[in-house]
Design a protein that fits this description.
It is a single chain. The protein is α+β, with helices and mostly antiparallel strands. The protein has ten helices and ten strands. Strands 3, 4, 5, 6, 7, 8, 9 and 10 form an eight-stranded antiparallel sheet that branches. The protein has a two-stranded parallel sheet with strand order 1-2. A hairpin with a 6-residue loop joins strand 6 and strand 7. Helix 3 packs across helix 4 and helix 4 packs across helix 5.
Length: about 280
Amino acid sequence: MPKKINTIVLLLFLVSVVNAQQISCSPKDKPLFESKMAALEKTQAANLGDTIITVGKSFLGTPYVEKTLEIGDTETLVVNFSGLDCTTFVENVMAFSLMLKNHESDFDTFARNLETIRYRNGEMNGYPSRLHYFTDWIRNNEKKGLVKDITAEIGGVALEKPIDFMGTHRNLYPFLASDENFQAMQHVEQELAKETLCYLPQDQIASKEQLIHSGDIIALATSIKGLDVTHTGIAIHQPDGRLHLLHASSKNGEVEISELPLADYLKNIKSNIGIIVARPTLLSF
């Protein structure tokens, strides 16, 4: 068989396998996964927090790209290592950290890990099954044994607030053009209304930052009506003795470590009221 035809057949086979698994990724993502996995396997980390920081730093300089999950007409598991938003950055770091913890290195296992982290109860079942609100993401991943919300332990305070931004801004979310998706998301928001939001106020972060470990997940709580969180990243203590944020920055357009300490960084965000802190545990794996 001519080489050109053979290549076309191979590509068609790969596409069919990807579609069967409901995974969306570009041809370059699997080689990127393999090279990143090979490099990470050579690293040594003293604890889970150090592992998460090592994985997070491996993405430094990766471009910030919005709405990387909003592709196609139906929900698929999107794998994209060349462009990340703040949430997909955290999810990819968690998925790679699971790989290292369990001494695994194959792409299929990574994809399963990512699905477990990204979707309600670990199963992709359409657009509403994705954990769109980050407080919901934390609670559901806590049930899976992947993280523990430690906000209350470090001095967090309760806040009663309706979380319904998607339901009240339907036009901003293309997948909500479907009545089925919209009604399902309204149900999710009704369930969220039963929960109390707990956050550490902004003016208390500097005095409590030593209680936050490098590798902890930081979510930025907001005063914006209907929203719980506007941004997320990973806590990292720097040589200046202060706590900074390792994150996919929309302002600077790439994954970076914040120049300012977290407490000072937040003062420049008008809508910020404080943070929510989740400590990775990865206990169910």
